[in-house]
Design brief:
The protein has 104 residues and is mainly beta. Strand 4 and strand 5 form a beta hairpin. The radius of gyration is 14 Å and the shape is globular.
């Protein structure tokens, strides 16, 4: 049986103060999926970190992206857990949309 793609909305037009972040601790279990990815859109400058774990205890940094506007990325699954964290680096109020996807 083929699993369906699952989109998770982490932030939808969320207002962040400068220096704040969203997504901390909000991981996806991709055990039964072949890929995981994210979509991030913001109206100010920010940084998006992608982390992974094999046991949901020890987390490692996979990628870091500067984001101004829109950034999308998909990964072939190599670990069981993934998460995406967006941090507003503009030091002024921003809005952000952040979602993740896992699928076949």
């Amino acid at each position: 049986m083929k699993e369906q793609d699952i989109i998770r909305i982490i932030a939808n037009n969320l207002t962040l103060a400068g220096g704040d972040d969203v997504g901390v601790g909000l991981f996806d279990d991709v055990d039964n999926y072949k890929y995981w990815g994210f979509s991030c859109t913001t109206n100010k400058a920010g940084t998006l970190e992608v982390q992974y774990s094999h046991d949901n205890i020890t987390w490692n940094l996979l990628d870091t992206f500067p984001v101004t506007g829109n950034k999308d990325q998909v990964y072939k699954k190599t670990r069981r857990y993934y998460l995406a964290v967006f941090t507003d680096t503009s030091m002024v109020q921003s809005t952000v949309d952040l979602s993740t996807i896992k699928g076949e």
